[in-house]
Amino acid sequence: MDKISEDRPHNGIVLETSPLPFKPVEHFGPVTRLKPWFIAQLRGQSPEQKMINGTDDRIRFESHGWRYPIVLFLHNITDSGNLGAIIRSAHYMGVDAIAMATRNTASVDDPVVIKASAGATEATRILQIPNPFKFLSDSGNNGWRVYAAEAPPPLAENLSFTEDITPAALDAKNTSPLVSFRRTLPNIPVYNHNPLARHPTILMMGGEHSGIDAKLKTRAHYQVGVRGVQTLDVGVDSLNVSVASALIMLEMLKKPANVKAAKKDPKAGANFLF
Questions:
Q1: Burial of 190 (0-12, 13-18, 19+ CB in 10 A)
Q2: In what order do the strands lie in the sheet with 145-149?
């Protein structure tokens, strides 16, 4: 057992398992609320990959009677602890799938990732994205909307807003930690926008140091960030990526108060909204 486990602690038990399934995806297809799944166009797989990953191109999601699917897309997340924490949060929050770039991102098979995820790697649908730019472009053409997570520009000391930050961010009635901001993309009032009630959504998170790749950022429809209130500037101008992703997922997955009750379509076998 010591030899099989390469002298790692085994407590008298050694289990041989197959690799985790990571379906390679080209892009997502259109989504309708009448179906509890959407199509992920798969890239060609070897016979061995098909045995591990399967060939079903349908990605099931639970609408809970009100929402479209949400997929978390990760690019340049190189810290294994961060990646594991993000997967754990995504599973806990109810994200429908995690899409990961095949390059410049930590491996899910890393023991640190598996431990930090607290087992969520085994229960979360994880997809591989060989060509991130094409994935975002083609999915966007099929009705998906991409939200790029960025650190917002700093507020002025007197809390007056600049042209880069929506006035809604400073509205006393706005209890959301999210703020949308304008760079080259549209400005939206996040706290009454409710992305998931409107369209299938891809939330894109970038790396710990350089953030989202500039080329990929051009494929986003909106930018969104987590606002902070700094009382003393000590050089902390943003959140850890795992914390930021959890906060944004939490806000996006909140059921809006103005969403009407869902009815059951006996023919479609899924919830839909009037």
A1: buried
A2: 58-60, 37-42, 23-28, 126-129, 97-101, 70-74, 201-205, 145-149, 222-226, 178-180
Residue 34 has what pLDDT?
Answer: 79
Q: Are 129 and 135 in contact (CB under 8 A)?
A: yes
Tens-place pLDDT, residues 51-85 = 989 999 999 998 988 899 999 999 999 999 999 99
Strand 262-265 versus strand 270-273 pairing type: antiparallel
Which SS3 state, helix, strand or coil, does residue 140 take?
helix
What's CA 147's distance to the chain center, in Å?
A: 9
Which domains are seen in the chain, by residue range?
68-254 (3.40.1280.10)
Q: C-alpha 179: how far from its chain's center? A: 17
pLDDT in tens, 124-143: 999 999 999 999 999 999 99
d(CA 179, CA 112): 32
Task: Give the up-direction half-sphere exposure of residue 74: CA atoms within 13 A in the CB hemisphere.
Answer: 31
Report strand pairing: 126-129 vs 145-149: unpaired
Task: Name residues whose C-beta falls within 8 Å of residue 8's C-beta, 6 or more positions apart in sequence.
Answer: none
Per DSSP, helices labelled H in the chain are 47-53, 80-93, 111-116, 120-123, 132-141, 195-198, 214-217, 241-252
Expressed in angstroms, the distance from the first to the final Cα of the chain is 60
**This model's pTM is above 0.70:** yes
Least trusted range by pLDDT, from 28-42, 219-233, 245-259: 219-233
Average pLDDT over every residue of 32-56: 91
Q: Are 70 and 203 in contact (CB under 8 A)?
A: yes
What pLDDT was estimated at residue 11? 81
Instruction: List CB contacts of 211: < 8 A, sequence separation 6 or more.
Output: 76, 150, 151
DSSP summary character for residue 190: G
